[in-house]
Amino acid sequence: MSAEDASPAIDSGIDNVADKIGSLNTDDRQRTEEEYAVSQITLRAIVTSKEAGVIIGKAGQNVADLRDKTGVRAGVSKVVPGVHDRVLTVTGVLTGIAEAYGLVADGLVKGAPQVGMGGVISNPNTHPIRLLISHNQMGTIIGRQGLKIKQIQDASGVRMVAQKEMLPQSTERIVEVQGTPEGIQRAVWEIGKCLVDDEQRGYGTVLYSPAVRVQGGAAAPPLNGDGGYAPPRSFNRTGNGNDFTGGAAAAPYTERPRRATPPDLAQPVLEEGEDIQTQNISIPADMVGCIIGRGGSKISEIRKSSGARISIAKAPHDETGERMFTITGGPSANEKALYLLYENLEAEKMRRSQIPEAAA
Question: Where do the K Homology domain residues begin and end (predicted)?
Fold first, then answer.
């Protein structure tokens, strides 16, 4: 694939700050191909209902064969009435993950309608795969000035487009991979290597769940990773699969006489028809200060702009040293708060990445 062919895909995916920098928290040690091959990851993708039918097969035969051939655990979320999207979840070692997505692509080329979410497929030997990638890990896949995504495209012969916006009520974005089954297998291998190197930044991801959006932006009960209905306030932290529903929230505040309500406990703003939801994300310890700002100025601005209530745990929640930020409000306010938090994080990472160059 020529540089000219790749450039539109790159341009569409690197407009915001997160896409212009690589990870600053990755393991500097270079892994061998053998180490990558046996690394355990989970890689999800959005599929249409028709594509899901092809992947599952009659009486589940196709997905069963997929598991047998690759050794992965794979499944498709249950149907949500009125929603055309479903989520394919594949978990296993990286070689198995890459092979599984190659087989999925092959099955879709042979059995799916020739109109996918990416539009009319001009080449009958290709099919788009829409991978779900944490917003916080996207910079590693795209690389500085789009160099990494171009390298993956050149190595695999696929075409990749990284969407700029996070999916509703989540911190995941779509990377669409268009190519032959063999090309998709190679591309997933390269993408998986990026995710292995950048595993820590995947912690804190709010997983996307297909749901019916109703008036005011609220959603029907989301699906969990196994395809069942999750509690309305269940938000998963990816990476190790921990669920921070309930217990991870900051300690309740006891109001004292003649004192103003702290800004982190102010009443959240709700749009008509919305219900209050709680989402928890982890912030690296060395980034907490830049999110809060001098005298709390930045976090106050995020609260004001989003209308969400944001509280910050005083102590790390585990051995990583990360601090838990608890966001409470309606779906619209929470989504805006998440976007602003990640925008501040990526701006700070870019600032830090430029310090050595400026010094030089």
Answer: 39-109, 125-196, 275-346
